[in-house]
Amino acid sequence: MSLWKQINLQDANSFLMENMIQFHDYAMIMIVMILMFIMYSGVYLLMNKTYNKYMINHHMIEIIWIILPMLILLILALPSLKLLYLTDSTNSPNLTIKVIGHQWYWSYEYNDLNKLNFDSFMIKESNDTNHFRLLDVDNRMIIPNNYQIRLNVSSTDVIHSFTVPSLGFKIDAVPGRINQINLKTIRSGL
């Protein structure tokens, strides 16, 4: 759950989110290294008195300017493609949950569990400190731990967004279309 003044990502509750956090850290290291190199080069060029700013004609520098960004993008693209593959990988699910977005609430249908279905409404704002402000609902969707789960997400009226940041997914609920996502939790929690 997100806390006040939290800068980093939520604690991961799935294998996919753990990989996303690792990719985020990897990309941030690359960005900081590039930023430090640019700052060093800028300070060096400003402080160096023997360097002629108006006579720059060097083909090797131009080749490096082309090759180096291509290599950096390739280094970032490979782990990103791995994550993209992991999000779309389908295993045989142990449980299928149908999630339907309505104008002010969500409906959940557990077809594998004797056709269990219920609606989930947001709790009105109160001064209680034991509720998550604007995030708590009266009936929570409960998923088992260490089970391969498939969510079929759709909508009845307009486009909605169904997301659980700690599980590392965000999927659109579009009327007339069923979007699917697979997930597996690695620990219990809200």
From TrEMBL:
Every Cytochrome oxidase subunit II copper A binding domain range? 92-190
CC annotations in GO: mitochondrial inner membrane
| Keywords recorded for this protein, A-Z | Copper, Electron transport, Magnesium, Membrane, Metal-binding, Mitochondrion, Mitochondrion inner membrane, Respiratory chain, Translocase, Transmembrane, Transmembrane helix, Transport
Residues annotated as signal peptide: none
Cofactor(s) needed for function? Cu cation
Membrane-topology annotation of the record: Multi-pass membrane protein
Q: Give the primary localization class.
A: mitochondrion
List, for all copies, the residue spans of the domain called Cytochrome oxidase subunit II transmembrane region profile: 1-91
Q: How is the cofactor bound?
A: Binds a copper A center.
Protein family per UniProt: Belongs to the cytochrome c oxidase subunit 2 family.
Q: What is this protein called?
A: Cytochrome c oxidase subunit 2
Gene name as annotated: COII
